[in-house]
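User: Some background: our group keeps a shared notebook of sequences we're curious about, and every so often someone picks one and asks for a predicted structure to add to the entry. Today it's my turn. The entry only has the sequence so far, pasted here. Could you supply the structure so I can complete it?
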Amino acid sequence: MNQRVTKCFVLLVKHAEGQPTMCALPHIMRLLGSSKACPSVTGTILEMVERLLTLEDYEGDARIPAEPALSIDTAAVARLNLRERLNYGSCLLLPHVGSLLAYLHSRLTASKRRSRLSRQELSVLSRVSELASDPITSDSLLRLLLPLLGRGRQEPPETVVTDLLTSVGNLISQVPQPHTYLRSLAPLFGTVSHVTPRKLLSLVLESISKRCDDDKALISGVQLVVGLNAWDARWVEQPDFIRRLDAFKQVHVSLDAGEIGPDIGAIIIHNCFYILRKVGVVYPLFTL
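Assistant: Of course. Here's the predicted structure to add to the notebook entry:
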């Protein structure tokens, strides 16, 4: 089924001869952002967008003949500097990343509860944020998304937290001053409990430290936090207790030397509360 669907993607950018603006995809994306579009329509469009972003190309399978059709902006794809090859559907959506993010931003701000995005919207956001390049939109979305992660008495399902943190990691790589989000990330180290999202939290911190390579105190602080959350490479969900213990000892040394700033300090405090709640052995480790 997926194979047949991906063959049809090209029909979205098939246009009238000599009229490249006369194709379906731009008009569909404008409809998504329309205030008059009913939920059933936006839901169908989001389902289409999710498939464009997630379905892989099938090697050796020719697409349905659809000439003339809009060509892929290879220069824009190259500027993304992605580690993996971008699938055809995502390439088609590149010109519409801004409008997709604007739609998701409006969904977050329009909701009285600032809610929860739907499963499809979360999936789309986690994927399309990887293609984002606008610092202003990225900053606005981060300011809306980070409070969502720490809201509520109960932690959201692992898939929801994973999608949100994936989006945060992608967006934070686009803002000019990523270190300003450290304090907003701190409470998540005390509330996020699932293994994969906690690994993503460490990856987000490491991404920030790489962007701030002239701040030696921040880099060493991030290394401490990553050590406090180390996982055994031999076992997927098994903590690396040796590295964690060494990191706790180094925290004690760094505190005495006054080398831990307030932002990293806040993260460490929240991390300690998390361990106290889950394990209950922080204080003895600090006295070793």
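Suggested note for the entry: Residues 195-211 form the longest helix (17 residues). The two ends are 59 Å apart (CA to CA).
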